[in-house]
Amino acid sequence: MNNIPRSGLSLQESQPARPTGLLSSLHLDLPLLTGLLLLTGAGLMILYSAGGQNMELVERQAIRFGVAFGALVLLAQIHPDNLRRWSPWLFLAGILMLIAVILVGQTGKGAQRWLDLGLFRFQPSEILKLALPMMIAWYLAEKSLPPSGRRLLVAGALTVLPVLLIAKQPDLGTALLVASAGIFALFLAGISWQLI
Asked: Cα 130–137–163 angle (5° rounding)?
């Protein structure tokens, strides 16, 4: 009896309506997408200005942005539960590829950062920018938050391993970005301010 709405509407009619439209059907967030498009546009304008008004350079970068936005739309269609299940495997694949870079990686401009896959060269450290925070979230997902000291040590080890492998290439910039991604994942897990 308590579940009957007073307005006389059924339960389904009394629940808030879900947003409809193209963006919601594609699982895209309008404010986030708008921010990304503004940053992309600003980046292309800066490239045009800094590149001596070279439109060919801007067009090549715009094509890369187009491919990246296509990947964004495709990845947005993957259910978060699937991403959670894939996280440890993606992290492990990234670590194995970083080890492969040390053993057989291609050297360019004084750094050994790439794997030659025949058709193109690939920089495995880019995978860890996403795989590391996903792995930390996967590790902490089923546990109580904020994380205990032991869990923080394990999450710290998960962060340090790829950072050291990337720094060995050497690629300090990417190593710091990957470390930041891991630290922010821990911060969002609710580390106490005393520990921070």
From this structure: 50
Query: 0.90 exceeded by the pTM?
Result: no
pLDDT digits (tens, 9 = 90+) for 5-45: 555 555 455 555 555 677 778 788 888 889 999 999 999 99
Q: Which residues contact 30 (CB under 8 A, 6 or more apart)?
A: 23
What are the pLDDT digits (tens) for 98-126? 888 888 877 766 666 777 777 777 788 88
Q: How many residues does the chain have?
A: 196
